[in-house]
Specification:
Chain lengths: 137, 379
């Protein structure tokens, strides 16, 4: 029997640019051309001022650890507990859920406000997930 | 909405609570509805307005044989029933219907006739949360807790005290699922579920249901039970994605719904005799006390740990034992409403003496939605 698989995102027309970005090694966000609001998750209009004039740009990939849990049970398919489910605040403002790699999954190692940088984890030839690791330096 | 124009005249839970392998979810709706109809001294044919969540109104109305002229299928999670009360009160005042039945039921433990919850892979949650290992509420609802603790200096012991105090209330309630006393050490030594929360800080998983019947305050005098008036109401939604809340230091939905209800009721916090704050997990009473304006968030942990919300305390909170110790079928809001009604009728197992105003605050999803109802037994 095949190993249970991690939940796989299925892009929509509004999110395709994001997933194209991660596959190309870029974390892409959107900025409103009218009011400069930066937002996530993707949509073809500004949730702050309703303008449809928005642009996709490459984010810095920098952020910090805003909050997390370390999940023990029940574990999601494809995950070995304990594993942290984190929310990262990006330097550009938006927050996103993610996992923290290259770091022990413990309260001691996972310090709130620690600096993080994006990394990319290919699930298959179609989907690459953005994850985060402690920032170097 | 004008205060005290609509009243609860029927209220009941399912005959059994806990593990009910003998009934489907739909029959649990009917069991609760029939108990509430009997409580109000009505016939099913008297019901002309109907509201429920998760199950559709048409499903439950057909099963019960109800022919409504007003329906509400608002389904925003566990506080849906607070929103139903608000909508029903407005509908009755507007003359759209006269007698509204609101039902909740969930075969949360036995899973009989209940569709499993699933997250579509092309939804925003499926794309931007599910791939990171979220798996049910215990892995999601506590995600804001560590930030909240750091911002306000809340301790693990204080968050453990929430479960301890609520067990004290549950011990007074024959229908509570968990009644044995526990200590802060017991909570902090219980099995880890999703750090920082352990088993005793997470809600129960049970089967059950409940139903309410509302009518105009003028008609309410003719019913067998003491009327419980709708004094104030509020509702809001924020986001279905916990990661996308505006801040983890409070809930925008709470901060919208709560003050709306207080304003409509025309009451101050000192007027509140009895309080219910939906406690799916141990942090919710802290968010609620802060966001509803009872005190600054940084004082909420100490307030509970110092015993202010326990039996005999100055602000009795979650007096049925709450989702942590009484029962939690998955959408607990109905049980919080039932306890507020019991307290206002003066028949609660752990009755707060002379309570005249009860605030009942609910959450839906993981801070996705909120509804607040202020009840009173004086018109």
């Amino acid at each position: 029997m095949a190993e249970p698989q991690r939940a796989r995102p299925k892009p929509t027309p509004e999110t395709q640019h994001f997933w194209d970005g991660t596959k190309a090694g870029e974390l892409r966000l959107q900025r409103c051309d009218a009011c400069a609001h930066v937002y996530f998750p993707p949509r073809p209009f500004c949730p702050s001022c309703a303008s449809r004039r928005v642009s996709v740009f490459k984010a810095s990939g920098k952020g910090f650890l805003y909050s997390y849990v370390i999940n023990h049970r029940p574990a999601a398919p494809g995950f070995t507990p304990p594993y942290a489910i984190a929310v990262v605040e990006l330097a550009e403002g938006p927050r996103m859920m993610s996992n923290i790699i290259d770091c022990p999954q413990t309260p001691e190692a996972l310090e709130l406000d620690m600096k993080l940088e994006v990394a990319f984890e290919a699930l298959d030839d179609k989907i690459t997930l953005p994850v985060f690791r402690p920032a170097k330096g | 909405m004008r205060r005290n124009q609509v009243a609860v005249v029927g209220a009941a839970e399912t005959t059994e609570l806990g593990v009910i392998p003998t009934m489907s979810q739909l029959q649990l709706h009917a069991d609760a509805a029939l108990n509430a109809i009997a409580d109000a001294g009505l016939k099913l044919s008297d019901i002309d307005g109907f509201a429920t969540a998760v199950e559709t109104p048409q499903q439950v109305c057909h099963y019960l044989g109800i022919r409504p002229t007003w329906v509400d299928g608002t389904s925003v999670g566990g506080c849906s029933f607070m929103l139903h009360v608000r909508h029903a009160a407005a509908a009755i005042e507007a003359g759209l219907c006269k007698t509204v039945l609101i039902t909740h039921a969930e075969s949360g433990k036995s899973m009989i006739g209940k569709a499993p919850r699933s997250i579509p892979a092309d939804s925003l949650q499926g794309q931007f949360e599910a791939p990171y290992g979220v798996y049910g509420p215990p892995s999601m609802f506590p995600i804001p807790v560590l930030r909240f603790m750091k911002t306000y200096g809340i301790t693990h012991e204080q968050l453990a005290a929430v479960a301890v105090v609520q067990r004290e209330w549950a011990a007074k309630n024959p229908r509570a699922m968990m009644k044995d006393p526990i200590t802060v050490a017991d909570v902090l030594n219980s099995r880890m579920i999703a750090y920082p929360f352990r088993l005793l800080q997470c809600c129960l998983v049970t089967d059950g249901g409940g139903a309410l019947i509302l009518t105009s305050a003028d008609r309410a005098r003719d019913f067998p039970r003491k009327p419980v008036y709708i004094m104030g109401t509020g509702e809001s939604v924020e986001t279905p994605m916990v990661s996308q809340m505006e801040t983890f230091n409070s809930s925008r939905a709470f901060k919208t719904a709560g003050p709306l209800a207080f304003k409509e009721a025309g009451i101050a916090h000192k007027d509140v005799d009895h309080l219910m704050i939906y406690d799916a997990f141990a942090h919710l009473p802290l968010f609620g006390l802060g966001d509803l304006g009872f005190m600054p968030h940084e004082e909420t942990g100490k307030f509970i740990a110092d015993g202010n919300t326990r039996p005999g305390g100055k602000l009795p909170l979650n007096t049925n034992g709450g989702g942590l110790s009484y029962m939690h079928s998955g959408m607990y809001g109905m049980y919080a409403l039932q306890e507020s009604v019991r307290q206002m009728r003066g028949i609660a197992p752990a009755q707060v003496p002379n309570a005249k105003i009860s605030v009942c605050h609910g959450v839906g999803g993981m801070f996705a939605a909120s509804g607040t109802i202020v009840f009173t037994n004086e018109r």
